[in-house]
Amino acid sequence: MRIVLVGPPGAGKGTQAAFLAKNLSIPHISTGDLFRANISQQTELGKLAKSYMDAGNLVPDEVTIAMAKDRMEQPDAENGFLLDGFPRNVSQAEALDELLETESMQLDAVLDLEVPEDEVVKRIAGRRICRNESAHVFHVTYKPAAKEGVCDVCGGELYQRDDDSEETVRTRLEVYHTQTEPIIDYYKAQGLVVTISALGKVEDVTTRAMEALKRDEGDK
Q1: Which of 137, 139, 195, 203 can pair with 112 through a Cys bridge, CB separation 3.0 to 4.6 Å?
Q2: pTM for the whole thing?
Q3: Residues with catalytic annotation?
Q4: Are strands 109-114 and 2-6 parallel, antiparallel or unpaired?
């Protein structure tokens, strides 16, 4: 299967992508991994991306698309892939369609992880990270430390990252609504969107997603 995974920050896309990719025996292709791999391997695309990042500029769509193209052409993606973090906007979605058409491929589904905005804020703003190198993660509601502000594992200080503050989370949500959410309508017009609730236990969301994808595949 060839799947695009979408959802707001805090929806658990990375976690679900890893489980779904394993269950479906396809590679999980995330934008973050693509950038890190290309930069660490000093590929031409990696050097180009780093030049923009070092200058404090956004990496142009065409560079991201080229990285995704290279990754999707690798042997392990021959029978499918799960894209996480790409496409991020409608222009990238259009470019992906053109790329797939050139390769005589097409998407099977766009899995939309639905989470209420207040839950997103609660999930992210409640995270606390250990300052020590281990960087263990806790949550004030879902996984509280035995002693407030102290890591259960190593005794390090727990803190809230600047980009996890409620104000920053709401800003990230606004960016998602204006830039990424429109791709859902774009793919709905193609009959590709499968929407599921991302609330509940991780394994329950994975089961929900697998069942929805199987139903969608059976309907085609």
Answers
A1: 195
A2: 0.88
A3: 13, 88, 127, 161, 172
A4: parallel
